[in-house]
Amino acid sequence: MSAAPAQFPTATILAYPRIGRGRELKRALEAHWAGRITEAELLNAADDLRKENLARLVELGLNPSDASLADAPSLYDHVLDATILLGAIPPRFVGRQGLDLYFALARGDDKVGPEEMTKWFDTNYHYLVPEIGPDTPLHFADDTVVRRFADAREWGYVTRPVLVGPVTYLALAKADPATPDFDPLTRIDEAVAAYADALAALHAAGAPWVQLDEPALTSDNLSRTRAELGELAARVYERLASATERPQILLTTPYGDASHAVAALAKTGVEALHVDTLRGSLPEGADLSGVTLVVGGVDGRYIWRADLAQLRETLKRAQALGAARVTVATSNSLQHVPHDTALETWDDATLNENLHAWLAFADQKVLEVVTLARGLDEGWEAIDAEVAEATRVLEQRAAAPGVVRPEVRARTAALTDADRTREPYLEREAAQTERLHLPPLPTTTIGSFPQTTEIRKARAANARGELSDADYQARMREEIASVITLQEELGLDVLVHGEAERNDMVQYFAELLDGFAATRNGWVQSYGSRCTRPSILWGDVSRPAPMTVGWTTYAQSLTDKPVKGMLTGPVTIIAWSFPRNDLPLGEIADQIGLALRDEVSDLEAAGIAAIQVDEPALRELLPLDADRHADYLNWSVGSFRLATSSVRPDTQIHTHLCYSEFGQIIDAIKGLDADVTSIEAARSKMEVVPELAEAGFDHGIGPGVWDIHAPRVPSTEELVELIGLAADAVPVSRLWVNPDCGLKTRGYEETKASLDNLVSATRQVRAQRGLEA
Question: Nearest to residue 137, comparing CAs of 91, 168, 173, 99?
Answer without folding.
Answer: 91
